[in-house]
Amino acid sequence: MSAHDQMRAMLDQLMGTGRNGENNKYQVKFNDSKVCKSFLLSCCPHEILSSTRMDLGECPKIHDLALRADFENAQKTKDYFYDLDAMEHLQAFISDCDRRTESAKQRLAETQEELTAEVAVKANSVHELAEQIGQKLAKAEQLGQEGFVEESMKLMEEVEELRKKKLDAEQEYRNSMPASSYQQQKLRVCEVCSAYLGIHDNDRRLADHFGGKLHLGFIKIREKLAELEKTADKRRDEKRKAGRGDRDRDDRDERSYRDRHREHYVGGRELDRRSKRHRSRSKDRKDRERGEKSKDKEDRSRDSRSRSYRSRSRSRDRDRRSHSRHSSSSDIKKKRDRDA
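Structure (tokenized):
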């Protein structure tokens, strides 16, 4: 991402979609169903686990920092209860991860040599101490980078004590089994992120794991889910009450509107009277239309008979004139014959 894009993203995150009168590139609002509600609360697994071994790819819903800023501003005046949506999303994700963890444990149980109960207890003790060392090393490095040197030094002292305990636990584990079996790598599954950890992993390897983005990302997701689940019942009750309150408020607004516009409100008997009056007017209008159509038909019939009568009259006139001319011509011819 270029410096220009970084500055633009920072402005979007601070000022939302309305900065400089601009609309967001997705042309949606934060409350649209296409927008990821977990992202608005900064806990979407697709974002947290990006660029890790368990990268989930792009989220099917919209991620936009400007929409998150819009939501944070709107949340100050109205509760949208998106934490419940985010909780359901995280529950589904963590449930799937826990199923993968159990499947991985089952595969290890089937492929690794089975240990006796006593040896298994000692191996678990080594694993637990190694995990504590890795976690404290990662925390000490983080504090050192943040400038908390004294706190970091105290953690390093605790790490040294854990290392001594781990050496003793490893010695007990080594003495409880044959040398050939001890050299075999014994794996276990991380309960947080489902990664494989070996009993012979060194401190650096464990620190990289527990301080890595994948493990810390799962810790963030699980802690957020636990936080949301603590208040889930209370939030559901508040959401139901808010829903009833919204409906009551809508009813009050509707009654107030009717009171303000009572002269325009029609209902009950008045509606029936207006309906009857409308049907009566409609019937009268249809009767008039039928009467007008009948009158037009009679007028057309009368005009047709009149035209037919005039046509016959003209035909008789033509016949009489033709007969008169013929008679005159005949009389003239007879008179000529007599004169000759």
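The beta strands are 187-189, 196-198. The chain is about 75% helix and 0% strand.
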